[in-house]
Fold these 2 entries.
Entry 1:
Amino acid sequence: MDIATLIGLGGAITLLVFGIGPTNLPAFIDIPSMLITGGGTVCGVFSSFPLSRIFNIIGVVKNAFFSKQLTPAQTIKQLVEFAEQARREGILALEARAQEIQDDFLKKGIQLAVDGTEPELIKDILSTEITFIERRHGDGAKLFEQAGALAPAFGMLGTLVGLVLMLGNMSDPDSIGPNMAVALITTFYGSIIANVFCIPLSEKLKGYSAAEMMIKELMLEGIMSLQSGDNPRIVEQKLTAFIEPGLRAQAMKERG
Amino acid sequence: MDIATLIGLGGAITLLVFGIGPTNLPAFIDIPSMLITGGGTVCGVFSSFPLSRIFNIIGVVKNAFFSKQLTPAQTIKQLVEFAEQARREGILALEARAQEIQDDFLKKGIQLAVDGTEPELIKDILSTEITFIERRHGDGAKLFEQAGALAPAFGMLGTLVGLVLMLGNMSDPDSIGPNMAVALITTFYGSIIANVFCIPLSEKLKGYSAAEMMIKELMLEGIMSLQSGDNPRIVEQKLTAFIEPGLRAQAMKERG
Amino acid sequence: MDIATLIGLGGAITLLVFGIGPTNLPAFIDIPSMLITGGGTVCGVFSSFPLSRIFNIIGVVKNAFFSKQLTPAQTIKQLVEFAEQARREGILALEARAQEIQDDFLKKGIQLAVDGTEPELIKDILSTEITFIERRHGDGAKLFEQAGALAPAFGMLGTLVGLVLMLGNMSDPDSIGPNMAVALITTFYGSIIANVFCIPLSEKLKGYSAAEMMIKELMLEGIMSLQSGDNPRIVEQKLTAFIEPGLRAQAMKERG
Amino acid sequence: MDIATLIGLGGAITLLVFGIGPTNLPAFIDIPSMLITGGGTVCGVFSSFPLSRIFNIIGVVKNAFFSKQLTPAQTIKQLVEFAEQARREGILALEARAQEIQDDFLKKGIQLAVDGTEPELIKDILSTEITFIERRHGDGAKLFEQAGALAPAFGMLGTLVGLVLMLGNMSDPDSIGPNMAVALITTFYGSIIANVFCIPLSEKLKGYSAAEMMIKELMLEGIMSLQSGDNPRIVEQKLTAFIEPGLRAQAMKERG
Amino acid sequence: MDIATLIGLGGAITLLVFGIGPTNLPAFIDIPSMLITGGGTVCGVFSSFPLSRIFNIIGVVKNAFFSKQLTPAQTIKQLVEFAEQARREGILALEARAQEIQDDFLKKGIQLAVDGTEPELIKDILSTEITFIERRHGDGAKLFEQAGALAPAFGMLGTLVGLVLMLGNMSDPDSIGPNMAVALITTFYGSIIANVFCIPLSEKLKGYSAAEMMIKELMLEGIMSLQSGDNPRIVEQKLTAFIEPGLRAQAMKERG
């Protein structure tokens, strides 16, 4: 998991515990309330998405948070090396290299170029692939968004249950306060699930997705350029334009 | 109905009953409140959509939840078989096969190809059909969305009615609590209708629609490819690019 | 007015009266509250749109709810008949027919075709017309949407007025309840105006508009096809693709 | 200012005064509350937009509400006259006419046509101009939208200040009501600023902008048509298609 | 920092202090509440964006608020001078001039033109660069937007914590008011963070970005025009069309 997420989640929880005060913590831990709010949110997610997609999404999310992506600079470096080799030894020379590539998308693209597939078809196939990767990522972000919308609703449902029960039986005035405190706990949980977890993580997944999409577009551009026999310098120039100026110096350095 | 929806709806209701406590359940069952909230939502839906479309949508929804769709892998398999037969025996040989096809869209497309309709016209006709199927699905999702927006509003209306009645007649202080509890029940119902049912099911319908659209686009692509006499290997390669990498292995396996 | 709207509006009002209880009804009728909420909403609409457009929109709305549109099936039938006659007797033979057409859009299109106007220009003129009809319909839906957004706001304004007056003068504790009940009435009205009337009717207008747009697009497609001398069978095939499969059988039946 | 806006604003304020009751009016006038809510909203607008743009927008808004625009019918009439003169006496004859044109956009377009500028360049220049006019109008609407979003927030901030002060010092129970009444005044002001002024006027500016854009597009279309030497009848036919059928009869009448 | 932002932020804070009353100010300063609301918002931002991007964004924001941009008039003046020199002495003569250019984007564009890069490639490279600058700016605005959405949520979380603690222990009725006052402070902070700072600054960043994008597009257009050997008068005319009529007189004046 990236450091920013660790800091963000850890920090928010620490701040809440500190705000509550460790000695008061037990008042905020209520298993039935957790079940209603958290469980309800999970149930809502199950009602919202097909089962296969939910499991699919878990993979996407795990991938996004834990797998190492190539940086744009590394990607450009690799593509320029391929272009150089293709220019020196012909594009068929990349066949062996392609086997060592770890990124499935890049491997497939190089393979298609080596096989002599028509440029239009390569572009079609890889673009479709990019579209699907993007859609899958979008599904992940949408799942968290939906959970972030449902959690406060289930929190409010729990509070309504508590209020109705309390209001229906107010014989003991002293119990009103504590009962209402318990009723509010689900609203509290719902807000935490949404604002500490789901809404920020949905945004983060979108950021991961955008970063990965840029890498994939770099690869697509590089493969097309390489296949049309472009001079490696041109390949580099084209690809470098794709990345932020701040990263270009780094890309150049990597290229040595 | 798919398993995820069953789990989601069943789980949410179970959690709520558990949260309320079975013995307190009667306090949460109030027929007039149900009529105002549920009936009001249904009335709002009637005011929002033409009658024909409402019935139409019921069919779409039933279809979405209960009918079996071909998987992408099955669809590709079938289309590649058609391409092989067309290449071996000529496209007219598909005429007999077309009669056995269950999917109306695919049957119509093959029929048009067999009839020698111009590719442009086939594409036009099938694309229009896809647009309409998509629009009908969109209508279904929109109906649930509208219901999900109206339900809490009618719930709040019911609560306002209860509050006004209660506030206008506060001679008996002991009745304030119970009266207010009853007033809140419609808000409770409105939130359940929206967050347990309408909002998740609207999302699920969108997912079903996206899945079916992908199948239809696969079919359109396959029919166009097959009609232009593409090699079955090319047909397969093109279509496989349309589906998620994770499903490709499965598609290949199905192809044997 | 279509039946669904009648059911929806009538049902919602009946349910509310039933929820309130007929004997309590007078407590919910307060002329000043109606003036503030309803009048405020109308004033907000006047501030939001140009005068000419507001009157314009009244016409559009009346039209949408009360005028009879051709069904897609009837439209196709008529266009195919025109195509047959144009093929038999030449396109000029449609001149006399055009005079009997009730739909202004169709009449204009046929007239343009008869006059020998260039296809590109016909398409431009009719497309512009479609754009403007769509925009006018959109304006109608937007007016109701705006009213639906302003009504609860004016309802809340009325409640704030009531609350401030009540809180400023709490010498008689017994009057607090009733005063607050009265204060809530404007919120109640605002919610009814929005959720029973404006929001559903805005959606319904969008539906009417989409249906009418489809008819107009059918007509445009039919006129272009007819003018280019297409075989009536082709005209029919093209147009039928425009409508929902479920309506096609009906269209065929109408064609006899 | 157009009549609808006058009716809308005047009516809403009258209704509120009536709802409050003239004798109670002083309770709703609180200078510090006005400063916090109104001033806060203005400050928020300053934080939201560059200074130059804020002054710019004031001009746009003044223009939109007070300047007289040509109607579509007048615009078409003028363009057709120009087309007639250009056809009779050559396009250079328009040079003198161009000087009398009041609308800067039209004058510039005619001047460019007279100067023999290439059609493509004329179109580019005028389209860019339209884009910028539209953007400026959009900025005006956005400013009111932002103010309409910030006003209730500052109103709530004021109420929170009042509540915190009141709750922190509840030694005199009799002062609770009046203090809370005062606290609510800022919420009341925030809602008025937003719902009586900003939100409707933002919508009205959008409507003005759409109307002016249509006039500009008419002019662009007319200038291009005129420059290509189109027959004045064709110019008229093309331009008339741009306006609503209801306005066409009027346009024809103007043409006499 | 631009004057409008200074006025906006300073004014809003002054108004709030004035509304609270300087003597009551201590009641609104609560370090733990600040930590929960402000710290929680910062944590939420860390959970929402990758670390690299957060630091990146700080630079973008600092740049937007403090760096001096060329005005459109200055940009046009400079580009027309370049066009004149290129026409007089050939495009290579710009090589020396390019070294003195401060704007990296313009320098790169001129350099590419001098190097004889193909127009299509120059356009591609510079457009990509514009896209990335825009995306970075968009990220800055999005960060503030996200913070503006999270701050009120964390404020409400803090208030919920306070309410639950207070309700759970109501043995001393006199402490209810002050406790509730403290509980509301986080909501107060959340609203200030969002409405005084984040939401307006997000909008302002969007405005800065739009202004800078216009300058960059001007530069791109000017470089393309200059490279194709356009007459400096044409360059000026094309570029002037890009800016608001109100700024044109100024641009002309700058040109002398």
Entry 2:
Amino acid sequence: MSLLNKFDRTSPAVLGQDLHKFATCLYPICRSITGDGIRQTLAIIQKRIPLQTIAVPTGTQVFDWIVPKEWNIQDAYVADSSGKRVVDFRKCNLHVMNYSVPVHATLPVSDLRPHLFTIPEHPDWIPYRTSYYKEEWGFCLSHNEMLTLHDQEEYEICIDSTLADGYLNYGECYLPGQTTDEILISCHACHPSLANDNLSGLAVATALAEFLSTCDLRYSYRFLFIPGTIGAITWLAQNKEKVRNIRGGLVLTCLGDAGGFHYKKSRQGGSEIDKAAAHVLKIEGRFAEILEFSPYGYDERQYCSPGFDLPIGCLMRSVWGSFPEYHTSADNLDFIRPLQLAGSLRVCAAVLDVIENNRSYRNENPYCEPQLGRRGLFRSMGGEAGGRASGEEMMARLWVLNLSDGINSLLDIAERSGISFPRIKDAADLLFKEQLLSLIP
Amino acid sequence: MSLLNKFDRTSPAVLGQDLHKFATCLYPICRSITGDGIRQTLAIIQKRIPLQTIAVPTGTQVFDWIVPKEWNIQDAYVADSSGKRVVDFRKCNLHVMNYSVPVHATLPVSDLRPHLFTIPEHPDWIPYRTSYYKEEWGFCLSHNEMLTLHDQEEYEICIDSTLADGYLNYGECYLPGQTTDEILISCHACHPSLANDNLSGLAVATALAEFLSTCDLRYSYRFLFIPGTIGAITWLAQNKEKVRNIRGGLVLTCLGDAGGFHYKKSRQGGSEIDKAAAHVLKIEGRFAEILEFSPYGYDERQYCSPGFDLPIGCLMRSVWGSFPEYHTSADNLDFIRPLQLAGSLRVCAAVLDVIENNRSYRNENPYCEPQLGRRGLFRSMGGEAGGRASGEEMMARLWVLNLSDGINSLLDIAERSGISFPRIKDAADLLFKEQLLSLIP
Amino acid sequence: MSLLNKFDRTSPAVLGQDLHKFATCLYPICRSITGDGIRQTLAIIQKRIPLQTIAVPTGTQVFDWIVPKEWNIQDAYVADSSGKRVVDFRKCNLHVMNYSVPVHATLPVSDLRPHLFTIPEHPDWIPYRTSYYKEEWGFCLSHNEMLTLHDQEEYEICIDSTLADGYLNYGECYLPGQTTDEILISCHACHPSLANDNLSGLAVATALAEFLSTCDLRYSYRFLFIPGTIGAITWLAQNKEKVRNIRGGLVLTCLGDAGGFHYKKSRQGGSEIDKAAAHVLKIEGRFAEILEFSPYGYDERQYCSPGFDLPIGCLMRSVWGSFPEYHTSADNLDFIRPLQLAGSLRVCAAVLDVIENNRSYRNENPYCEPQLGRRGLFRSMGGEAGGRASGEEMMARLWVLNLSDGINSLLDIAERSGISFPRIKDAADLLFKEQLLSLIP
């Protein structure tokens, strides 16, 4: 079935509003790689899609890593001598370095400074910092806020957090298709109040799962909502038998900003998902760019580690780290836009539409062209009066007939002809109906 | 033997005049895919080359197609109420839609209009229209002529044509060579008074066959003069055993206009004929362009259908459809030029010269260079006094020696060295005479 | 071991002075492909490196060639009627066409002219001419000098040379490494007072051998100092069993001028030395260019003849023949520069550093990334506090881990990542020490 035909029944504006509203609802939660924040987040996602949540205890060995202690935080502040909070976690959860160990003390500014993080070149923005694997504490604040601290003054600092044995949580949504071969869609769910990285990915992935659950699917789909790095490693370590079914996949993130699309290829580089994404972006995406694989980035790092070498790429609009708002308080709900979110969801659907419908056919009349005119399927580009197909529809039919030798897939034909996959697929459907093609099983 | 050496004994001006004269002689005939016009055309070609003519009866099944009824036409006109012919087939055979069924009636203009075809953007030109496979009738006229028709007036229309059982005719000229492996040269012969498409192809193909018939040939050559589409399909359907011998070929058309050369690759893309044509056009043709295969165009569509997948490309100057005169009365004898026709014939000869002479050799002194100086074959590029070869002749010898490992062909060597094929061939001939090379059988 | 670390302990200025001094010492000698000049040259090289000298008698058959008679020269001049030498070999050994047969006569200018060689477009420069394989005599002089000869006058000409049975001499320096697989470094040693072509090559090759002799080497190295063409042919003919050990090599010449680097690929084109040289030049060399193989040039012509097809390329700065000073008296000691010579030596060391250290490893934790943070090897590009590695060091580690699948070599990883080979090698060393990698034997 055509995912796109079905998808395009909803208006982008309506879709976009829905996606942005969902991100807005998740925005205030103080997420981290473990703890209550990610559990609350999974619970909200679970309201929309059939999500199984998994809890892996602290201390579990996952390949070379160990599931860390669970981190939770109630409150945190820096207060001046009058007791006034000059830095206040309750106002913005980015103010605390994520995974900070508890601390409560009164310190002169000079002792405090090594624990303060700012962005001098953007003096109004609060940076986002973490220290997951090294026991540290710190505050993040705007550079202007820091300038108001008095050298002579002592400040009360408090981080009311806990770091204790607990669980690493993640969510998994499995949509069964006609085969157990599956497509993996993965996004991290561990960033606090940051919108493009990573709420845009959560919103798009949730909506995509919701949409696919209404479709009659060829492949099975697995959606992972996981803490970055340790979550992907944990899932891979505990699901080796599922890994064998993975035919391809996408890591989704940074999908709400105003930038053009970027698809970062899998380590394999030439897999079906790589070709499908490149094809869709060439047709759909103005300013779209295909990036070579590199071993840094999001969880494609783990999926594409040499032992797995899965055909999983990463779809983004602006690339992480390339926009100044990245990992700062400026990556907020204004930075992501409804129509951009909707457009990202559509590109995901278009890529999966290729994967779902990429079949190979055999031309049943391989000697010369079949007489399309007799079947009402011909439109001359010269002076011959004929059917009502557009020039491109006509060309799509001729390309499908010419290249359907049982080896070329429809995606191969779309690439070689320069015609969009949906149009090639329509041509194949029509020719199949006319018994001019047979399907290669 | 070198085809080019032999070819170049005639002056391009003389050749060009001859080619243009031949096209002029064919121009007035009202050709179609069947009927007297194509038979007259074949008879004229037969005066110059040994042409076998074949007649295939109406109703013969050829793959998915059926040989259509034969069409002939005596006269056609649109006359006003005074009996004056305002559209007159006797003045220009494009005035009747080719394959129009007979009609004789008197009609108001409003009923006539759906059967009238013009080109508003070129108001003086008459379009060329056909309706081979749908029984229709129509008149083609200049837009200015149409504007003179009076809305209130009734017009007498007459198409004195017949559509009846008969034959599809085509011509075949076979020139035997040392092997039964053959090269196919195909051109359509079904267009009425249109010069570039397709009289230029008929003239060049006839002259090429005439020229090759005087040469001692390695390969056998088969020239086909056939109605477009149905003719190629008919030939392929009835000559499957001959198809097995085809090593390569060219479809010839649009070879007389002022444009640069275009070679459209075969579906295989990397066959010997594709490489030979690309090499020749790179060396010979300023502004030449190599086009990828596409399943639309001339009869390469049939030869390159997936069941045959023959290495047959298409040589043109301007590409069909890319010049405004295409399929109009402006594609006339002024549109094709003697020197352009002669240049096209020379390019054909140059491509076939590559095919005829593309051998592989083995260097009999593969360890280090042989001492060319001792044999009078060396010319230093530095300060060494030596023989009288030009720098490029010298380099051609070194390239042939270096790459003649039994695998590289002379065309491979020409491509890698960037030296023209004839020069590489001359070097190989010289080195072979000196027993420095042996021929790979 | 890293050749470059060791190499970089000497200052380029000091190195450059040493190289230029060595060239200066060799400059005055009148070398040819045989005779005292090349023997003196080898004796000077022998003072610096362990050089074995080999003498092959005149008349020895070497493949298609025969070792020629030995040429020696004492004096030569053209004197006017007053006995004044107007052309004097004692002032510049280029004045005599190299390999001139003895002659002593008094001739009118008209009889002399066919034996005089000048460069009209550079009227102050003396050309360099040879006639090794055809018994001839001649004088080379500046065009201005020639213009002073009087048409009416007779001149005494004298070439006091001998051409007699003797020897062809060459030098061979073998540096044994851990394996008998060897790298061949070859340079011609047959040009008289010409600095860039070829003293720069002799100086760089000698210094390179001297440097490598202090290193603990993986491969064995063989340096050849040989007469051009006939020397390479002689060595190949008499050392077929050594040829089998050659894994790669470089022909060195024209390494002292101010131009950017050029590496001419071996006939194979994609061998390890070709990739190593291309990688080094991309990283090191501004304005560096990679040239395709061609069967003309220096002794790579022989090494890359089809019977041997050795992976031996040619490293130059300016390409022979592309600079006006080539093969003239203007290719003198001012034309080559100390810093350029030192830079050339460094590029050689860098290429061999790649060859020496190009290993393949296997990631021992191929499933997901190993936890580098725990080992102090991680530096986040995002907000994670971590180790002290630079961004590129960090990326080098991730690339090595990701691509170390036992197939990719470190050079492959350097190429795919765009990170310099030494940095990739450092990362591999570190990861190997941490037991994250195992070496593929």
